[in-house]
Amino acid sequence: MSLNAKATQEFVPIKEVRDGIIVLKDGNLRSIVLANSTNLSLKSNDEQRATIMQFQNFLNTLDFPVQISVQSRKLDIRPYILLLENRMAVQNEPLLKLQTKEYIEFIKNFTETVSIMTKSFFVVVPYTHTTLKSDSGIFKRFFSKKDNIEEKLREQTDFEEKRSQLEQRVSVIQQGLSRCGIKSAQLGTEEIVEVLYKVFNPGELEGKIDISS
Asked: Does residue 43 contact residue 54 with C-beta atoms inside 8 Å?
């Protein structure tokens, strides 16, 4: 099992997720922006053309590459069913209780026959910066504890500098999307981990059951 796990990790280029930033094994950074969708079919022809032109202009102004990813998953209806069942349990009116029960059965039967999918739209913003790495050969054994501390400080400083450049790119992306009428938000560490987990575990349903409601 451990050998399989190690072999699997070798195919994943991610070193860590720190402060809402994905750090790759080669030192490059990635940030993920979640964007909402817009329904062009509900717009007039002029509005559709204007939206498409605005988006085209936005892409043409970018001087760095981006990756647009769409994640489709089957909707997990269990939290909603659990919420209805909890409300039915405390319902004192017999008629409302019966109606709630029938509604729960309708939702269950409907979702069993029709696959309800959720779609999430992500923009992956990269920052690539080539840095010279120290030789890990003969010079490595001469590093003292002080040198190691200084090396860690330099790594932290390098991370903050690259992160600042990446944040500027994220700001450009969000402003461009906003001009297209698309709302967006930069994902934090926990949200990125959840997205990555779903990418590498595509068979699992959307979300988890939350019984705190």
From this structure: no
